[in-house]
Amino acid sequence: MVKKELPKYQVIANDLLNKIQTGIYAQNTIIPPETELADKYQVSRPTMRQAISLLVNQGYLERRRKRGTLVKKVKIEQEFTHLIESYSAEMSAKGIYPKTNLLYFDEEKATPEVCKNLQLPEKAPVFKLVRLRYANDQPIVLVTTYVPKQRIPELINYNFAQDSLYSTLEKYHLKVTRVIRKLEVMEAEETTANLLNIAVHKPIFYFHTQGLTRDEQPIEYSIAKYRGDINSFIIDVQR
User: Fold this and answer.
1) Which part of the chain is the HTH gntR-type domain (predicted)?
2) Number of neighbouring beta carbons within 10 Å of residue 219
3) How far apart are CA 213 and CA 208, in angstroms?
4) pTM over 0.70
5) Does domain 8-71 have CATH number 1.10.10.60?
6) Please, are residues 148 and 120 in contact by the beta-carbon 8 Å criterion?
7) Pairwise CA distance, residues 11 & 46, whole Å
8) What is the pLDDT of residue 28?
């Protein structure tokens, strides 16, 4: 079977996209004018325009009046709203290099909010875990997690800069099989803004997550603060 050749505009669009993804054309910068690109690729201006229009429609480029064509900041689609898997697994599946910076991990007394979400008595001991998570070396989410000490005291022995919390819980027969999530949109305060490398008061997605085991017992309560400028969320609703 003879392989069908791609149209010229598609070949050019693929090459432009590769330049965007490898940083040759960086985000929030203007690419060369159509006339210059048409000369470079040795094609007509309508063909060049068709290639650029394809990337505009796919969300990689944006035409700006009197400025030219801008490389847009491509958002990372987060699918955890309908999937239960580790952050590293989800990012790796998208071809994104994940990294975790462990900011804090120790035992504390649970606050009233944490007690309510983990169904614990007042001031019960919990492990508090704070992680800053990256995608391709860019900070995208700050996560604070609480786990009841009584249910898994061995948790303190793990290094959650490398270990997956969900995989660790599963080792102790505490697999998270269902989650309840609440979403708010808030402004980033100074500490969060500095960690996520955004301006103070920029919008962030603020997720509260209650992780439940097979017997419907809460084993995890997390507060995740996602950057609003580079994250989007897929909601899969079925009837």
Assistant:
1) 6-74
2) 23
3) 17
4) no
5) no
6) yes
7) 14
8) 81
- CATH architecture designation of domain 76-233: 3-Layer(aba) Sandwich (3.40)
Is the C-alpha dihedral spanning 216, 218, 219, 223 positive or negative?
A: positive
Report which of 84, 93, 81 is spatially closest to residue 165, judged by C-alpha positions.
84
Amino acid 152: pLDDT: 96
The pLDDT assigned to 32 comes to 93
Map out the domains of the chain as residue ranges: 8-71, 76-233
pLDDT of residue 91: 66
Among 9, 32, 8, which Cα is nearest to 20's?
A: 32
Q: pLDDT tens across 31-89, in order?
A: 999 999 999 999 999 999 999 998 888 778 888 888 899 887 666 666 555 455 666 66
- Residue 77 corresponds to which tokens in the numbers above? 């689609």
DSSP state at residue 30 = B
